[in-house]
Specification:
64% helix; Lysozyme; 3 strands
């Protein structure tokens, strides 16, 4: 019985922590997403998949920071504050969406929904075709209410030919 009581208190605590500031996070997601032409539900889904809405989430292995799990590569490139990414949800979302917009603008025209994989696995060639990339895109789109994963766009076949020629130096 004692174990169940402890478990209930732990769950109650986690719910309270996650609920605290939820309105501010929602406001930031809506404001920043709309200002950048990104669906707020997509941003929510990425946050859900990346950090489970934990503001101070940090992944030691990949060196990803905060709600949107911004990678150290982007932190260095954009000269972001690691401490602020872990403590300031608005700052984290603002910069995560900035990175997301950059990947969308670079890849959506030929990758369809799979461009979202780039947010997770970066710019390496073939990322969106890898099990990691496709799995990530599917997990994100599964968390977006009413928006199915559309897969690769039909124009992607042109990209695949480019990829093959790069890999095999044709």
């Amino acid at each position: 019985m004692k174990g169940i009581t402890i478990l209930l208190y732990a769950l109650l605590f986690l719910y309270a922590v996650e609920s605290f500031g939820g309105d501010k996070i929602d406001h930031s997601i809506n404001q920043i997403s709309k200002a950048n032409g990104i669906d707020p539900e997509l941003v929510r889904a990425i946050i859900r998949v990346e950090s489970g809405f934990k503001i101070g989430a940090y992944n030691k292995k990949t060196r990803d920071y905060g709600l949107m799990q911004i990678n150290i590569t982007h932190i260095n490139r954009l000269r972001l504050s690691k401490r602020r990414l872990l403590r300031d949800a608005h700052y984290n979302i603002q910069n995560g969406v900035k990175i997301l917009v950059w990947f969308r603008d670079q890849y959506e025209h030929r990758l369809g929904s799979a461009w979202v994989a780039r947010y997770n696995c970066g710019t390496y060639t073939g990322c969106e075709l890898s099990p990691r990339g496709l799995g990530y895109s599917k997990r994100v789109y599964a968390a977006v209410p009413g928006v199915p994963f559309r897969g690769l766009s039909t124009s992607y076949t042109i990209g695949v030919k480019d990829l093959v020629s790069q890999v095999f130096k044709i």
